[in-house]
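Hey,
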Amino acid sequence: MKTENFAIRAATAADVPIILELIRALATYERAPNDVTATEDGLSKVLFGEKPAAEVLLAFENETAVGFAVFFHNFSTWLGRPGLYLEDLFVRPEDRGKGYGRALLIHLAKIARDRGCGQLALDTHTFQAPDFYARHGFEVVGRLPDYPLGHDELLMRKRLEPVPG
């Protein structure tokens, strides 16, 4: 990593404005800025309400949010164990190349292992960064043709060994 002033932490309810800002930046990057219908109130309820639907990791350089990872638990019937599904991993384009995406992915894999998950799964557009995930141990396990944005979508998975002890 190129900076010592980098940190990753779990988001809190106070971070909802930052989360929404990053969601909008992701949508702009994916050329769909008008498709975001999320609101601060809605995110507060679904992320920090009585039964949270997902969790968010935030990445900061100094005091500036540079990226995030949104994830939730799923379940593998074949493994008989929970898994984590990475819904979105995003680093602002101007902050790429510093190792922040890698750091978020490693942090998420550690969470998954600590929670006894058998796999970490995601899907990614072919125009995005499937090679990035492959370099980190993910394998392509399927394709979803003509995903909503009209790009092939790759289903990727990384098997996780249980934490010893």
